[in-house]
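=== Discrete structure encoding ===
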Amino acid sequence: MSLIEIKLPKSLSKALNLPVNSPKRQQIKVLKKLLKKAKHTEFGQQYHFDEILNSRHLGKRFQELVPVHDYNKIYNNWWYKTLQGATDVCWPGKIKFYALSSGTSEAASKYIPITNDLMSGNRIAMIKQLLSLRTYENLPVRSVSKGWLMLGGSTDLQKGPGYYAGDLSGITAKKMPFWFTPFYKPGKEIAKTKDWNKKLDFIVEQAPNWDIGFVVGVPAWIQMCMEMIIERYQLKSIHDIWPNLAFFVHGGVSFEPYKHGFEKLISKPLIYIETYLASEGFIAYQNRQDAEGMKLVTNEHIFHEFVPFEDKNFDADGNIKPDAETLMIHEVEEGKDYALLISTSAGTWRYLIGDTVRFTNKEQCEIIITGRTKHFLSLVGEHLSVDNMNKAVQVVSEELNVSIPEYTVVGVPHGNFFAHHWYVACDDHANAEELRIRIDEALKEINDDYAVERGSALKEVFLDILPESTFMEFMKLKGKVGGQHKFPRVLKGKMLNDWQQFLTTGTL
């Protein structure tokens, strides 16, 4: 039986077939639904949701009355109460699940509330993405009915006083709808395993017994798993054991730096499907074959706002300023970077998620992730984004025919001026000096500000080549293994100090 052919419940079918509307109208409808549901909560009373709902200009009044929050602000003022068992704080009822997330920089875990309403919206977005495969040309229909190998966090969640907490992928797997269970691998029993190495060993052991059509996860961990299977069974490619593997569903990081190395492991072309599933919600997904961007989820459970990622709105450390300009979806422009604010059906209100996005197709509401508000380099005005870095790495890896699956960049003093220090993972034969020169030249072509500053205060670029295992070992020591964890592209603060200590001593 194919997933696309499953007969859906009437209520879900109705939800999936919402009338086509303008993005602005869809978003106002979502905002109104969120405000109505939460108007009797403490947050709703504090910020006058009733008044907002009675306003002729709902979106603008919402922006006027409700402040922007980062994690620390909303946790310290509101969410901490829910962990203590309080109900009706930012969303009706009691919060029973929390996604543990530390992003890619902070050391302490964040507790992101997860509600049934949020999970329902996430599932509908997932089903819509799955159904969009029907529009793909030359769709390998046979593979659609095969297994889904999903590398995520443990479903054996941490138990707190009245709640459970864990990786979002673990919560999602634990609350998986019954109709998806036959397709799900590695299965619920092994999904409970907290030890990442044991989980991988089990998957490698069971790999010959599965007929996999989809692999789902962060590229680095999927690649590691496939390499282990190929090595264990002395295969030429992963298709020797999974001939029906046709889809790779990925997200969280740009796939381009991984693509060259990834395609060494396959003997048939795969359909790559990008998703934007954060701990705070299912934000966007690729719904058109070969689309440059992902379609924002505009009519379900998330209200989006966009803050132009400019000096007037953010300080040098990537913190949002109190008077930052915020836009709704009909006010954005293509080709500009925006920090994303979301309000969701889990009591996440005007929340700075930390990602920056760019609209590639405003009419289709399609975006790409360009980086993080705190993961960019602008020591002297070079304004170097993660997107710039990814493109440079992609260009150079293709020119030199080498795989660069991981990298990170540090801004450092250099005499009276400054420099960038690159740490690049490459297990192929590569010359560090050649990589340094080529990446530098590629960035000059991509980013005019960078080119100007390289002739001024940004005096030097350094580059070290390290084995990919060095990056993986650091992540293991940080407790960021598997699931949605990915290596930060820019290192600052404590993460930088830990990295430097690790390179010196091998420990943290």
The radius of gyration is 23 Å. The longest helix spans residues 23-38.
